[in-house]
Amino acid sequence: MIFGHIAIAIVHSMVAIFNIEGSNVGVVTMIILFSFAYQNTSGPVAWMYAAETTIDAGMGICLLTLWGTVFVLSLICPIVMDPDSLGPNNTFFIFSGLSVLGATYSYFMIKETKGMADKDKKLLFTPERFKLQVEEYEEDK
Is 132 part of any domain? Predict the structure, then answer.
């Protein structure tokens, strides 16, 4: 996820730069590269990571957050892309900065789950006072 966010940050910056230079081919190429980077990193991994590190009730909150973000972006993007507002160049530079923040967040907050048992994955982000309840929940399944 870290390298995916970094790649997305670079691609978003390049979209803005190619748009400033008036290179339509460059913009389209960067959009294709964004799709490739997103679909091979953050896109599916966020859903899988949420599913493997949360219990059922927590997954509902994760889904609300993930889809809520998509909904908010669909409302905000047309407004900020308008040339009378921020315009596309500034918007893509902002997206690039947010992707850098995403890479930083991933580096410090996302924990590796490779090779861990399902129970151990669920306990990664569980506060100490609830760990016994999670263990009992997993045993009842």
Answer: no
